[in-house]
Amino acid sequence: MPAQILLAGGAGYIGSHAALALQAAGYEVLVFDNLSTGHREFLRFGRQVTGDLADRATLAKVFATNNILAVMHFAACAYVGESVTDPAKYYRNNVANTLNLLEAARDHGVRHVIFSSTCATYGLPQHLPLREDHPQNPVNPYGRTKLAVEWMLRDFAGAYAMNFCSLRYFNAAGAAPAGTGIGEWHEPETHLIPLALQASLDPARPLRLFGADYATQDGSCVRDYIHVCDLAEAHILALEWLLAGGKSAAFNLGNGRGYSVREVLACAAKVTGLPPAVEEAPRRPGDPDVLVGDAGRAMAELGWKPVRADLEQIVGSAWEWELSRLPPPRAG
Ligand code: UFG
Predict the structure, then answer these.
(1) Domain housing 13
(2) 168 - beta bridge partners?
(3) Domain check: are 198 and 243 in the same one?
């Protein structure tokens, strides 16, 4: 049986893009997803098992009956606001279920793990751009669950025959080319770029701009948007690094360039030709003014280079995806 890469959460936004990239690079993909937030429509690459990380018996069976070379772990709850109101859900899904996954991997001799971490593990930046050695003091339960898993991985790698990469994503955005059938699809959608594009399509749904009084050039928050296909490629490089015996490490994945919310909205207007309706709204709790990452380590060690760094290209690919999701026009 050829060796497979197990993608926990491979039917989600970033997981499905990684599945596409892995398949294109010649890897055998095995997606494990409970389809709670992932989409059946994204099960397009490799083989699939519908299962839940809470179900240790099913997990053990998946590891026992396949030839799994490495695990990529995308499965998580990822709404910062919800993590504040329902932290138990986050600790169960993101921490306890990850322990199930890592124990199953260890028990079946799987030695390589690539984990979807986040810039939210840093908390409020003390200096910018954020490097991996910046203190990690997350300001919400979501970030704390991701940091807990980073520590779990370090401890597993210290004790068992495992190495890992924690990939700290900045703001994943954009979509794979039209025709691949995958893109950004969250329910509910909370992310800036899809909401801005949806506001362009439907003036009845204005974009709420959260906070106009931040200490930034135009008062709106600044973020580092990274194309999801560039993120996907970093996973392949991390896999190859681990397979070659690379040491366990955390890597930032961002473009190192920040854009304000207003700049993103201007870009959306340019790409679509339809300026989104915008309503100024109060700040969203827990949003730092600026988050920009230094991905120098991933570039130097993994040989990663984002090639879709241009914001217009990122928003343009998201726009193609939004258009592909519109219902077909009615005949007559
Ligand atoms: N924003 C708006 N209006 C909206 C949505 C977002 O003004 O309707 C603003 C936010 O306040 C923020 C920026 O747009 O300043 C980006 O917001 P997103 O929700 O798109 O992304 P986040 O930066 O909040 O979240 C991302 C990931 C999270 C992760 C977080 C780490 O999606 O999983 O980065 O900071 F936790």
Answers:
(1) 4-173+225-253
(2) 117, 252
(3) no
